[in-house]
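Quick one:
INPUT:
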C-alpha cells in the first residue's frame, strides 16, 4: 500500500505526474490523495490542463542572438537565481500549480517582447 501524502507533497509531485515520471508506488499515492481531496484534485485539473495547452503550442526556434543572451544570463544567475526563487516560494508560499504557469507566462512574454 502506498504511503499517505499530504497536500504539499502531492502538489510537489504534479510536474513528475504530468510527465509520467513517477515510480508506480508514488503515482498510486498521488492518485489516492487526489481521489480523497477535492482541493488537490481541482489543483491537479488546472495544472494538467495548463500543461496540455502548453504542449499544444507550436514551437519556434529562438533567434541565435536571443538564445545566446538567455543562456549567458542563465549561467550568470544560476548560482543565485534558483536559490532566490526557492526562497521566494518558501516566503510567499505560492502553490506549485500557480507558480509554474506564472513562470511560463513570464518566459513567453519575455520571448515575445524580445522578438518584436
Amino acid at each position: 500500500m502506498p504511503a499517505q501524502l499530504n497536500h504539499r507533497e502531492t502538489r510537489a509531485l504534479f510536474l513528475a505526474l504530468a510527465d509520467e515520471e513517477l515510480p508506480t508506488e508514488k503515482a498510486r499515492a498521488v492518485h489516492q490523495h487526489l481521489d480523497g481531496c477535492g482541493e488537490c484534485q481541482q489543483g491537479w485539473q488546472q495544472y494538467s490542463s495548463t500543461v496540455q495547452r502548453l504542449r499544444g503550442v507550436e514551437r519556434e526556434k529562438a533567434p541565435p542572438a536571443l538564445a545566446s543572451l538567455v543562456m549567458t544570463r542563465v549561467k550568470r544567475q544560476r548560482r543565485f537565481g534558483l536559490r532566490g526563487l526557492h526562497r521566494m516560494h518558501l516566503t510567499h508560499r505560492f502553490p506549485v500549480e500557480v507558480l509554474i504557469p506564472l513562470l511560463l507566462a513570464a518566459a513567453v512574454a519575455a520571448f515575445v517582447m524580445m522578438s518584436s
